[in-house]
Amino acid sequence: MKQASTILGIESSCDDTAAAVLQNGKIVSNITSTQKVHEIYGGVVPELASRAHQSSIIPVIDVALKNANISLNDLTAVAVTQGPGLMGSLMVGLNTAKALSMSLNIPLIGVNHLQAHVAALYIEHQVQFPMLCLLVSGGHTQLIWVKDHMEMEIIGSTIDDAVGEAFDKAGKLLELGYPGGPQISKLAQNGDPTVYSFPDSNLPEYQFSFSGIKTSLLYFLRDKSKENADFAKNNLENICASYENALVNMLTKRVKKAIKNLNPKSIGLVGGVSANSVLRNAMKDLGQKYATECYIPDFQYCTDNAGMIAKAGSFLFEKNEFIDISTLPFSKSKA
Ligand code: KG4
Ligand code: ZN
Questions:
Q1: pLDDT tens string 160-217
Q2: Ligand 1, atom 11: nearest CA belongs to which residue?
Q3: Lowest CB count within 10 Å: 9, 38, 40, 124, which one?
């Protein structure tokens, strides 16, 4: 007999092929296969991403089911990322989910990837609403006002690059490989964040901009390397710590302003960059200072994963919000 609500989540919007099983509200398996093929190119190559998804999606789903100790016939629904993301990559996940939905005769749930990052918080927390959530990933930087589990409004976003890109582009300039975020935060641990300063933008309300700071790092490194060709190499830890500190301050400054203006019941931090420990601590400090709960996902639910897709899917499942077999993916954020 089928268990009440056993949902398979599938994520394939960028360079992670992921599958997870949510059983009666709990994640019982969460598998993520991160594509290595892009590393030598210093960024995600869309065509290579789609091909890698194609070869790994079935094995990843198989392992997720095995780890959950269930078979395909135990599933009550399949939830999949519908967008935003890379078109070819999204199609692999969506078509796989359609095939499962049709062959198993179970509902198909289309999940917005950005809402799913927020839903990552519901895996481990009983969130108090309204929540002010900072979403920071490789493609997005948003301040979101979350009224209820799947009811949210974007109140601020970046006008150019995402903060993850600011980390990744710095990683490229400092020759740290791709993605640069984890490398920069690792090196920053042994550096002094007060040695160098990088400028913030002067935008109204909760808007972000990260193209200026990236260019200022480029010119800074160019000028310093004229004096000493080994400047970056010899000062890597301090550069990383100072750059990271500037990015974290740019983010928390806006969060602080929004807390003061909107008085949320709780704050949250989600998306790939929420794996950054300096940012995690800065958000926890804000939570303490303003006496609001601060939720941050466990590391496995920060970067792209299917656990968050299954969790978001479970709320849509409860509301009978299903998609049709003819539904198409969407590449751009609808907000
Ligand atoms: O959410 P995510 O996995 O994928 C997107 O939907 O974009 O986020 C990936 C981003 C990359 O830019 C990566 O450099 C960044 O998250 N990232 C970090 C850290 N871990 C991952 N940035 C800073 N510090 C980290 N520890
Ligand atoms: Zn993401």
A1: 999 999 999 999 999 998 889 999 999 999 999 999 999 998 888 899 999 999 999 9
A2: 138
A3: 40
Residue by residue, DSSP assigns 285-297 as: HHHHHTT-EEE--
Q: How far apart are CA 20 and CA 7, in angstroms?
A: 8
Q: What is the pLDDT of residues 243-272, one digit of tens each?
A: 999 999 999 999 999 999 999 999 999 999
* CA distances for 119 relative to 17, 210, 302, 307, 326, angstroms: 19, 26, 11, 9, 26
Residue 135: name the closest of 254, 300, 260 by CA: 254
User: What does residue 258 show for φ and ψ, rounded to 5 degrees?
Assistant: -70, -35
- CA torsion 159-189-14-32 (nearest 10°) is -150
Q: What does the alpha-carbon distance between residue 46 and residue 50 come to, in Å, rounded to a whole number?
A: 6
Atom of ligand 1 nearest to the CA of 304: 3
Closest C-alpha to ligand 1, atom 8: 272
The single residue listed with the structure tokens 């974290």 is 248
Instruction: Answer yes or no: is the C-beta of 304 below 6 A from any ligand 1 atom.
Output: yes
- How many C-beta atoms surround the C-beta of residue 318 within 10 A? 11
**How far is 282 from 157, CA to CA, in rounded Å?**
19
Instruction: Decide: pTM greater than 0.90.
Output: yes
Task: Give the closest residue to 89 by CA, choosing from 157, 21, 38.
Answer: 38
100 CB near ligand 1 (under 6 Å): no
Residue 311 C-alpha to ligand 2 middle, in angstroms? 15
DSSP 240-272: HHHHHHHHHHHHHHHHHHHHHHH--SEEEEESG
Give 3-state DSSP helix, strand, coil % of the chain, rounded to 5.
45, 20, 35
Mean pLDDT, rounded, for 45-51: 92
Encoded tokens for 89: 């990559």
Question: Does the CA dihedral 65-70-72-78 come out positive or negative?
Answer: negative
